[in-house]
Amino acid sequence: MRRKLVVGNWKMNGSLAQLKELGAIASAARNSPGVDVAVCPPFTLIAPARARSAGLAVGAQDCHGKDSGAFTGSVSAAMLKEAGARLIIVGHSERRAEHRESDAAVRSKAEAALRQGLQAIVCVGESDEERRAGRAVEIVSGQLAGSLPQIGEGEGEIVVAYEPIWAIGTGNTATPQDVAEMHAAIRAELGRALGGRGGSVRILYGGSVKPDNAAELFAVPDVDGALVGGASLTAKDFVPIIEAAAGAGR
Ligand code: PGA
Best mutation site among 163, 170, 213, 234 for ligand 1, i.e. most ligand atoms within 8 A of its Cβ? Predict the structure, then answer.
């Protein structure tokens, strides 16, 4: 049985003042022992967030694929771990688009996170145009085959996040049927790539997850949690999503 995992992605939002939201979020996490909860603020807030979030994991939104070196402006997985991160989101569509990250780059970032014993959340998702052309499953399966790291014994955990690009920040969510179809395709691809271990990889859905649609999404087979952007910025919106995940696990 895979535990539900709910991850907040603050993107380039937040401030020291906004960390006050973490109090109620951490307390909801402690009250939901069957659910893993994490928040990924910008790099500069990881250490101060860590100090305020007993019961809550703190993560990062990106890392470099190398452990150290002449890479101005970049941050390594080891540095993020030292700051208190337990997980790293890699290959978010905003990074694939704005920073032209290839599947190979995403894979090297995921491997860097795993080398540090961290969770790597590998994001995949199709565009509106690709879905309308009937190519959604093909595109996502291809991204996954190119970006999935190989896991070795004793290394960190791989998590996959399916985030249709057209659902991110738009208020449009994929239908439960579309999500079920895609998560089943991802599960099959995980089996091809990782063999028996593919069955234990958690698959998150992301894209306009809100308090009023979370329970319906968590009830879909093979939806093991959510990657939440906008609704993770305040306890008012994020806590009911954590509670919905707890309810789905009962
Ligand atoms: P959203 O973002 O919940 O604001 O749609 C999700 C994400 O990009 O991870």
Answer: 163
Closest residue to atom 6 of ligand 1, CA basis: 229
Which pLDDT score, from 0 to 100, does residue 133 have? 96
- Decide if 129 is catalytic: no
Residue 133: both structure tokens together:
């052309």
- Cα–ligand 1 centroid distance for 9 (angstroms): 7
Angle between helices 235-248 and 21-30 (to 10 degrees): 10
What's the rounded Cα separation, in Å, for the pair 234 and 127?
28
Per the prediction, the chain carries an average pLDDT of 95
Active site residue 99: no
Q: Which residue among 7, 96, 168, 179 has the greatest number of ligand 1 atoms within 8 angstroms of its CB, and so is best to mutate?
A: 168
The verdict on the CB of residue 208 being under 6 Å from ligand 1 is: yes
Q: Is the dihedral of CA 166, 171, 172, 177 positive or negative?
A: positive
Residues contacting 104, CB < 8 A, separation 6+: 146, 147
Q: Which atom of ligand 1 is nearest to the CA of 9?
A: 9
The domain defined by 10-248 folds into TIM Barrel (3.20.20)
pLDDT at 11: 98
CA 204 to ligand 1 centroid distance, Å: 12
Domain boundaries, the chain: 10-248
Q: State which residues of the chain have pLDDT below 70.
A: 151-154, 249-250
pLDDT value of residue 52: 84
